[in-house]
């Protein structure tokens, strides 16, 4: 194993160049008083691809609307500006692959699929726990998209080492998340939650997203005074369910393994969801496989063409 790199306090981690639309969407989330329908509609209308995907999502069977929605503004009203801002962020994050070296693209594709699945499941879980908290559902979706932001940072800064490491982890079935973080610290000097928190703070992400990036593997360590306290258990559970449903970045999980985490009890206790057990919640989410697949497909970008070898 390589010698550990300098600690975060002495290392300038770089972030891939962010699309302007992504930066503006994050800025709107950071200023909730400006997060209105018209502002988000303008952001969507700049990009025909985002327009098409947004209309595809709002008209999907998951939302069960009786009439087809063809207006961007109407779609923003129905889904909510916070949720649509999250969709914009998700699609723009996928475009970061253009800034990544070619050897990282397969790794980035797996990571983006996992992030999209986690976002869908986080929003679905929060809807079951607290269906009337629409803003919380929407922030949960965005937090799910960005929970592994630190892995993007590691892949961008250390492409050869990170790809080799994560590809090896994918083949090592016995390694747990906490072990993976320890190995990241040995190789890079910090793990992906620390790297993600560091860069997200530099980019002025909202505190709730920074905290989710930092604590999604240890939701019980989220300070109760923080907004993310109500989100990190759902993100941790969604991450594990995604890995059970075919959207693992490194380690697929058997359902019994997915249930072996304190985040389940923490999630149910926080929301006093006495009608659910971890087992029934997992079963319910796994029954959403078709909707999950449609969601991931609707937000995914086409795979980049493979370059012919000379």
From TrEMBL:
<keyword id="KW-1133">Transmembrane helix</keyword>
<protein>
    <submittedName>
        <fullName>HDOD domain-containing protein</fullName>
    </submittedName>
</protein>
<dbReference type="Pfam" id="PF08668">
    <property type="entry name" value="HDOD"/>
</dbReference>
<feature type="domain" description="HDOD">
    <location>
        <begin position="15"/>
        <end position="219"/>
    </location>
</feature>
<dbReference type="InterPro" id="IPR013976">
    <property type="entry name" value="HDOD"/>
</dbReference>
<keyword id="KW-0812">Transmembrane</keyword>
<dbReference type="InterPro" id="IPR006675">
    <property type="entry name" value="HDIG_dom"/>
</dbReference>
<dbReference type="InterPro" id="IPR052340">
    <property type="entry name" value="RNase_Y/CdgJ"/>
</dbReference>
<keyword id="KW-0472">Membrane</keyword>
<feature type="transmembrane region" description="Helical">
    <location>
        <begin position="75"/>
        <end position="94"/>
    </location>
</feature>
């Amino acid at each position: 194993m390589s010698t550990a790199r300098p600690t975060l306090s002495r290392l300038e981690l770089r972030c891939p160049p962010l699309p302007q639309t992504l930066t503006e969407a994050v800025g709107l989330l950071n200023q909730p008083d400006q997060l209105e329908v018209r502002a988000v509609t303008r952001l969507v209308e700049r990009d025909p691809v985002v327009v098409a995907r947004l209309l595809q999502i709002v008209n999907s069977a998951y939302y069960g609307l009786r009439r087809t929605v063809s207006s961007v503004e109407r779609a923003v009203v129905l889904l909510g500006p916070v949720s649509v801002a999250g969709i914009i962020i998700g699609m723009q994050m996928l475009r970061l692959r253009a800034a990544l070296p070619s050897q990282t693209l397969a790794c980035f594709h797996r990571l983006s699929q996992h992030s999209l699945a986690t976002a869908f499941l986080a929003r679905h879980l929060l809807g079951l726990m607290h269906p009337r908290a629409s803003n919380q559902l929407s922030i949960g979706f965005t937090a799910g998209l960005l929970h592994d932001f630190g892995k993007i940072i590691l892949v961008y800064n250390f492409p050869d080492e990170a790809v080799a490491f994560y590809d090896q982890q994918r083949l090592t079935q016995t390694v747990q998340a906490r072990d993976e973080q320890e190995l990241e610290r040995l190789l890079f000097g910090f793990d992906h939650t620390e790297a993600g928190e560091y860069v997200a703070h530099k980019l002025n992400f909202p505190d709730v997203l920074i905290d989710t990036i930092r604590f999604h593997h240890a939701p019980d360590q989220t300070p109760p005074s923080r907004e993310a306290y109500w989100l990190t258990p759902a993100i941790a559970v969604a991450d594990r369910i995604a890995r059970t449903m075919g959207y693992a970045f490194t380690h697929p999980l058997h359902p019994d393994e997915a249930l072996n985490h304190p985040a389940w009890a923490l999630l149910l206790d926080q929301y006093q969801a006495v009608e659910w057990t971890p087992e029934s919640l997992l079963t319910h989410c796994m029954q959403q496989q078709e909707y999950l697949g449609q969601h991931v497909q609707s937000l995914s970008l086409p795979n980049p063409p493979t370059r012919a070898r000379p």
